[in-house]
Amino acid sequence: MIKRKEIFYLSILFIAISLAFQSCKLDVKKVQDRLEKVNESASTQQTEDSIIPKGTNAFKKLLPYRKEGWTELTIKDGFAVDIRYATKNNFTNSQIYDCPRCLLRDDVAASLNLLNQHLIQKYNLRIKLFDCYRPKAYQQRLWDKVPDPSYVTPPAKGSMHTRGMAVDLTLVDSLGNELDMGTEYDFFGKEAHYDYTGHDAKIIERRQFLRKKMKEYGFEGIRTEWWHFSFGSGGYDLATFTWTCER
Ligand SMILES: [Zn+2]
After folding, report:
1. 225 is catalytic
2. Nearest-5° angle of CA 58, CA 60, CA 63?
3. H helices within 49-135, ranges in order?
4. How many alpha carbons lie under 13 Å from residue 57 in its C-beta half-sphere?
5. How much distance in Å is there from the Cα of 14 to the middle of ligand 1?
6. What pLDDT shows up at residue 34?
7. pLDDT digits (tens, 9 = 90+) for 112-155
C-alpha cells in the first residue's frame, strides 16, 4: 500500500516533469518562430530583376514569393513569362493583377518544370506562361469587368486556376518568338477551339504536339481553349491568398 508521504512526493515529481515538458515545448515553438524569421529575411535579401517580360508594367523588381505547398515559376527556371492579366494586353484591356507572378501547387509546378527542360533539350523550344494561379480577389476583379459566365468563371464557383492546378501557356522558339497556334491567347471564338479544322496543317500539328507533350506530363487540355491545361483530376481546394508585390 502506498503511504500518503509517497503520494505527496510522486505528485511533486509529476508536476516537475509536466513543467519541464511544457518549457521544452515552448522552446521548440521559439526555435520555429526564429527559423521562420530567418527564412523570411533570407528571401527578402534575394533580388530577382527579370521575371517581368519587356514592357509588361512598372514593376522593376519582384522578390521571390514563398508559400508552403506552392512553387513560383520564373524565367530563372527557363520559362518565358508574360502574365497577361498583369498588363493591359488582355481581353479586358485593363490590368487585373497588381504584379505578374506564376504560382502553382508544388507537384503541378514540378511536372511543368520537367516538361520545360525536356522541350528545351530535345526541341529547342520553351514554355511561355500566360496565367497560373489566379487569386480569388483577382477573379472578382475580372468578374467585375466582365460579369458574363461564358467568358469569366464566377468567383464563388472558382476554377482550376483558383486551385493552383491550371496553367495557360504556349511555346516559344529559341529567340522567344511565339509559335503560331492559329489565334492569340484568350481569343474567344471557334478558331481557338482545339478541334477547329480550318487552320493550316502546321498549326494543327503544333497544337497536337503541345497537347501530346502536356498529356505526357500529366496535363489535360480543354476543347475550347488551345492554351489552357489542368493538372490531373486531383482535388486541391480553392485557394484565396493573393501574392505580394515587393518593389
Ligand atoms: Zn486557363
Report:
1. yes
2. 125
3. 106-123
4. 21
5. 59
6. 43
7. 999 999 999 999 999 999 999 999 999 999 999 999 998 888 99
Chain centroid to Cα 61, Å, comes to 19
- For 106, other C-beta atoms within 10 Å of its C-beta total 12
Residue type at 171 in one-letter notation: L
Alpha-carbon span 199 to 221, nearest angstrom? 18
The cell for 85 is 492579366
Half-sphere exposure of 186 (CA within 13 A, CB side): 16
Find the 161 Cα to ligand 1 centroid distance in Å: 6
CA of 132 to the centre of ligand 1 (A): 8
Sheet with strand 228-231: strands edge to edge: 80-81, 126-131, 166-172, 228-231, 219-221
- The answer to whether the predicted template modeling score (pTM) of the entire model surpasses 0.85 is no
Write down the pLDDT at residue 86. 96
Query: What are the tens digits of pLDDT across the range 145-194?
Result: 999 998 888 998 889 999 999 999 999 999 999 999 999 999 999 999 99
Taking the CB of residue 133, how many other CB atoms lie within 10 A of it? Answer: 27
Assigned C-alpha cell, 26: 515552448
- Exactly one of 48, 191, 220, 225 is catalytic; which is it? 225
Task: Please answer whether residues 181 and 203 qualify as being in contact, where contact means their C-beta atoms are separated by less than 8 angstroms.
Answer: yes
Answer for the pair 166, 187: CB distance below 8 angstroms, yes or no: no
Q: Which long-range contacts (CB under 8 A, 24 or more apart) does 92-97 make?
A: 92/142, 92/145, 92/146, 94/145, 95/57, 96/138, 96/141, 96/142, 96/145, 97/138
